[in-house]
Amino acid sequence: MTRRTTHFESTFLRLVARRLALVISLSSFGNSWRLAIRVLEWYARARWTATVGFAKVGIDSCGLSVEFPTKLVSVADPVSPVSDCMYVTYTSTHILFCTHRPDNSYLLGPDSPSWITVTEQGIRQSFDLTRVMFCRGNITEKIRFGKLVQRGEIILDLYGGIGYFTLPALVHGQAEYLYACEWNPRAVEGLLHNLRDNKVMERATVYQGDCRVVAKENNLVDRFDRVSLGLLPSSEGGWRTAVRAVRNATGGWLHVHANVPAKEVDAWSVWLCCCLRDLAVEEKKPKDWVVLCKHVEKVKSFAPTVNHYVADVFVGPTDRLPLNVELKPGTAGVLKTDKTVELCPAVVTPSSCALSPDGVLHQNWMR
Ligand SMILES: C[S@@+](CC[C@H](N)C(=O)[O-])C[C@H]1O[C@@H](n2cnc3c(N)ncnc32)[C@H](O)[C@@H]1O
């Protein structure tokens, strides 16, 4: 086998080729030289692509870095005779979008050339990178979630994706059983594959569809110890479904994700608790229920003044409160110190990242 050009060598070659092309095009050498330079440049580029191999390549704004399987590398060559792709693009940091085949059909699942596998914490997550989101920046939250889940719990993941939180709950958290909802068929395909690949399929059920609808249809009510609401910029649309899902008698935990202006995060957590309490009343949850936000975790920065947060909120009977605080039945608040709680005020101002009354999330506040 011939030695592969390193990334550094091919980048250098490419730069030299470009510089030469510029000089030559300014001089009088003519078209044949220009052609030769283009060939040299193409060669360096093709070699670079071929040598990407299992190297780390940055992919998305979240800083994803993945290892590409060899088959993807083979189709990356723009003139490769083995390629089925009509469109292949790459730069030094973004690579490979093989979205269409000549007959305009897609290769699905593991057969797709853009099917990749990312391993985090021993969990294998495979997906089609042209169809499904993946954010490397969420790794700390995935680890944290896997630790929060307790052995034997029944979990609901309202926004399952390819298993971002589902897999840590089952693999590391040892949840007894997990129900995941997901409406993107390509993500469902990845999720099912990943459940099998990580050998936890027998402890999970996946519902394809809008979580608010499938949860109702399948009576995911009064059955759960913990609900994950991993949707950005806001999971507010799923709060009612989540509250409804928690066990009446023992209560449970909601992990509520949101993008929130950093300066508003305290007010946001209070407003969140007030909303959850109102939803519990509307959903006719037991009268002795309380709502307590125990912790707000900053996951990552989303924009200069906006962060991705997750609030860990207990909803359930006051005598099941996991902490040594006293809350009167029907009240809600945010834990401030070991014993003090900031209670919901009589009138609370909605956070600027709240959905508008028509259910739309306007995003002017993110600027
Ligand atoms: C963005 S992902 C998971 C995000 C995770 N917080 C992260 O940043 O890695 C959320 C998933 O929820 C799915 N989704 C969004 N709204 C949904 C709904 N109403 N019902 C079911 N799935 C939904 C999306 O298709 C997506 O796969």
Tell me what the structure shows.
The chain contains 9 helices and 13 strands. The strands form 3 sheets. It has a 9-stranded mixed β-sheet with strand order 7-6-5-8-9-11-10-12-13, sandwiched between helices. It has 2 domains: 7-115, no CATH class; 119-352, Vaccinia Virus protein VP39 (Rossmann fold, 3-Layer(aba) Sandwich), CATH 3.40.50. Helix 1 (7-26) runs antiparallel to helix 2 (31-52). Helix content is 30%, strand content 22%. It has helices spanning 7-26, 31-52, 70-76, 139-148, 166-171, 185-197, 211-217, 239-245, 265-282; strands at residues 56-58, 65-67, 115-120, 123-128, 154-157, 177-182, 204-208, 226-229, 252-261, 289-303, 306-317, 332-335, 341-343. With 367 residues, the chain is α/β, with parallel strands linked by helices. S-adenosylmethionine (SAM) is lined by residues 133, 135, 138, 159, 161, 164, 181-184, 187, 210-211, 230-232, 257. Residues 133, 135, 138, 159, 161, 164, 181-184, 187, 210-211, 230-232, 257 line the site of S-adenosylmethionine (SAM).
Number of helices: 9
Cα(first) to Cα(last) distance is 53 Å
**The top level CATH class name of the largest domain:** Alpha Beta
Q: Please summarize the sheet with the most strands.
A: 9 strands, mixed
Number of domains: 2
